[in-house]
Design a protein that fits this description.
CASTOR_mTORC1; 15% helix; VC0802-like; 37% strand; globular; 2 helices
Length: 128
Amino acid sequence: MSRKLLIRLVEAEYSITRLNVGSPLPEWLPGAGFWSVSSSREEMTLVCRAARVPTGVISSNGWRCLRIEEHFAFDIPGILSSVLEPLSTAGVGLFANSTFSTDYIFILGSDLDKAVAALKAHGHEVMV
């Protein structure tokens, strides 16, 4: 059985940006809204509001953010998959990012209507 969740569209457009491993964190990264840094041996990935990313930085732009409004313990299975499955079935590509308390799902703005419809059809409440 899949979980039924409350999901909220976060205001603003987001960018997913790539920097070289070992790059210092740019001064434009922190600010209002969600932002995140992930680093691996291949790259450093930054997520933040698109308006803060300078021209010339390698970025994928036009992302919208959906936030799961409920908080669950780490050992509760199926939370993220209950969002990812209907999006995948609807042909919506995504970029997921988790925090200690919840999950954020980034979808291209051009897929927003399709994503919202898929999530609602799956029984989720989506606030846009």
